[in-house]
Design brief:
InterPro entries: HIRAN. Keywords: Hydrolase, Metal-binding. This is HIRAN domain-containing protein. It holds the Pfam family HIRAN. By secondary structure, the chain is mainly β. The protein is globular and about 40 Å long. Strands 1-6-5-2-3-4 form a six-stranded antiparallel sheet. About 10% of the residues lie in helices and about 50% in strands. The protein starts with a strand and ends with a strand.
């Protein structure tokens, strides 16, 4: 009996402006998630990977809360579970100030877990 479940959450890949010279988003592209407990900026960060290289992160509210109970972090911290992001749209401008620009990529975040 297969007790595998999937939870899909509309979201985005944040930080694209940092990685845009290395990665071009493609609709339908599925990218794995990896917790980053050693991340100096945020020990609860969850990275989006392409070819084992970080190309962004899932939104803060999915990755963590003050009690480390963000829904994605909660599920993918278990060894039998995994998560991924499917690119569902293009990069969108979120904020621009002089030469500093923040872009995010539209995506669906999925987690696969066992009951």
């Amino acid at each position: 009996m297969n007790d595998r479940q999937t939870l899909r959450i509309p979201s985005w890949i944040r930080g694209f402006h940092v990685y845009k010279d290395w990665w071009t988003p493609t609709c339908g592209e599925i990218l794995p998630l990896q917790p980053e407990p050693e991340n100096a900026e945020d020990k609860n960060a969850v990275a989006v990977l392409k070819e084992s290289r970080v190309i962004g992160h899932i939104p803060y509210h999915l990755a963590n809360t003050k009690d480390r109970t963000g829904i994605i972090t909660h599920f993918i911290s278990k060894p039998t579970n995994r998560g991924s992001v499917e690119v569902s749209g293009k990069a969108v401008l979120v904020w621009k100030y002089h030469v500093f620009t923040i872009l995010m990529v539209q995506a669906n975040t999925s987690i696969y877990f066992n009951n």
